[in-house]
Specification:
Layout lengths: L12 H22 L3 H27 L4
Helix pairs in contact: 1-2
Amino acid sequence: MEGVQVVMNQIKWPLLFLAIAAAVCMMGIGVSIGESSVLGAIFSIVALVFIMGFGFKIKKKLRENGEL
């Protein structure tokens, strides 16, 4: 392709880690439901909310600093 310049941005490792952790929490909810573990499901939901909120907080800070 002529005239198309591809720019690779650096990986934002904290955001990648938080995304993987959130996906693990979502899987934990499914596994807990499958195992009929109410305590496990509640723990996974609380962890998911905390991780997603922290991720959005970091993303907002990066956006405000012009790093995203």
